[in-house]
Amino acid sequence: MFVIVYLICYYLALSVKSHTGDLNMKKLFIFLLLVQVFFALPSQGSELSIGKIKTLTGTVSVLRGSKEIILNIGDSIYQNDVLHTSADSAAGIIFEDDTILTLVPKTELAVDEYLFAPEKGGLSMFIRMLRGTASYISGIIGRQSPESVKFQTPDAIIAIRGTHFLVRVKE
């Protein structure tokens, strides 16, 4: 996409007729290029990885927006992802704050909120367990701000006060 906009900007800069010549064409080219970069930055910043798949067996998928994607070791996890393990699968996820989340077969959960910005005092994790079983080991968020980590099940919201727990939601 960037290359296409670059070529369009270059073409427009070359096609501009000006009484001051090449200097104005170069200024227009630089201006249009900066506009492209400026408008591209917000879309890149909204999709920051919050974790990675570290271990995986079987088929693990993620619903990201309206797309279902099969995951592999090393793939990124993003806020608002809905993770799903099939009957013969499991996954280990490590988040940016070193939180470890392990999903066993037939588990589905949504990462509704994740904020790891300790330099700004922003720490938050909210996981919605839809079904299955997950093991949680606290990372920096859970150790520094345990009240900022919550797991919601169909029956209750679990507030974290320790460093390790197991949660199971029956179908």
Report on the structure:
This protein is an alpha+beta fold and 171 residues long. It is built from three helices and twelve strands. It has helices at 2-15, 22-45, 140-144, and strands at 49-57, 60-64, 67-70, 76-78, 82-85, 90-95, 100-103, 108-117, 122-137, 149-152, 157-159, 164-169. Strands 1, 2, 3, 4, 5, 6, 7, 8, 9, 10, 11 and 12 form a twelve-stranded mixed sheet that branches. Strand 6 and strand 7 (100-103) form a beta hairpin. Helix 1 (2-15) runs antiparallel to helix 2 (22-45). The radius of gyration is 23 Å and the shape is globular. Residues 37-45 have low confidence and may be disordered.
Features:
alpha+beta, 171 residues, 12-stranded mixed sheet
Summarize, please.
Helix content is 25%, strand content 43%. It contains three helices and twelve strands; from the N terminus they run ααβββββββββαβββ. Strands 1, 2, 3, 4, 5, 6, 7, 8, 9, 10, 11 and 12 form a twelve-stranded mixed beta sheet that branches.
Write the layout of secondary structure elements.
Blueprint: H1 2-15, H2 22-45, E1 49-57, E2 60-64, E3 67-70, E4 76-78, E5 82-85, E6 90-95, E7 100-103, E8 108-117, E9 122-137, H3 140-144, E10 149-152, E11 157-159, E12 164-169
Parallel strand pairs: 9-10
Antiparallel strand pairs: 1-4, 1-6, 2-3, 2-5, 5-8, 6-7, 7-9, 8-9, 9-12, 10-11
The N- and C-terminal alpha carbons lie at a distance of 44 Å
Structural class by sheet pairing and helices: alpha+beta
- Please give the number of β-strands: 12
Mean of all residue-level pLDDT scores: 83
